[in-house]
Specification:
single chain, 179 residues, 4-stranded antiparallel beta sheet
Length: 179
């Protein structure tokens, strides 16, 4: 089984997510102290706990994200947006590296469903060129934003992932052709 680990959150995304969690805790304290009917208080706390749980899960899973495959299947493990494919669903030969700072037509334009934090895009996005993509993109501190793009055969989207060493990851993807 081949595995490519995806990039972990950068400092700006990490601080933004921690700030969101802290904000949710402040709102929870306000809800608990505010006089209101018990049913409203329980409903509010339930919603807050669910949202808090989703963000904690995202934070945890973002450090364990990976793309793994063997001869039969491919698994993309992302926070909240994991996908499984058969090996024949992936266009291994057409996979490539793109720097989003240069190839602006591949930059995310609209978030369809996902999480957009400073320095981190996760989920389904519409790109500048009009195509749809499943992203797990972490902005690099040096200003570049190199991502590995993996086309899906017979689907109307691509996968865009940030990895620590894109060239090594792409070479590993291309070795799948010889299996």
């Amino acid at each position: 089984m081949d595995i490519i680990s995806l990039s972990a959150l950068g400092p700006s995304a990490l601080y933004s997510l921690i700030g969101l969690l802290a904000g949710l805790l402040v709102i929870a304290v306000i809800v608990l102290r505010k006089p209101m009917p018990k049913n409203a208080k329980y409903a509010s706390m339930g919603i807050l706990l669910a949202v808090f749980g989703v963000f904690v899960l995202t934070l945890y899973q973002s450090y364990n994200s990976e793309l793994k495959w063997d001869d039969t299947g491919v698994s993309l493990n992302l926070p909240l947006y994991s996908q499984d494919f058969t090996a024949s669903d992936i266009d291994w030969q057409a996979s490539y590296i793109a720097d989003l700072a240069i190839k602006t037509q591949l930059q995310p334009k609209w978030r369809i469903n996902g999480l957009g934090l400073p320095g981190y895009a996760l989920g389904w996005f519409k790109l500048q060129n009009g195509n749809k993509a499943l992203l797990s993109v972490v902005a690099a501190e040096n200003g570049t934003q190199k991502v590995v793009i993996v086309p899906i055969i017979d689907k109307d989207y691509v996968i865009m992932i940030s990895v620590e060493q894109p060239d090594t990851a792409l070479a590993l993807l291309h070795t799948q052709l010889t299996h």
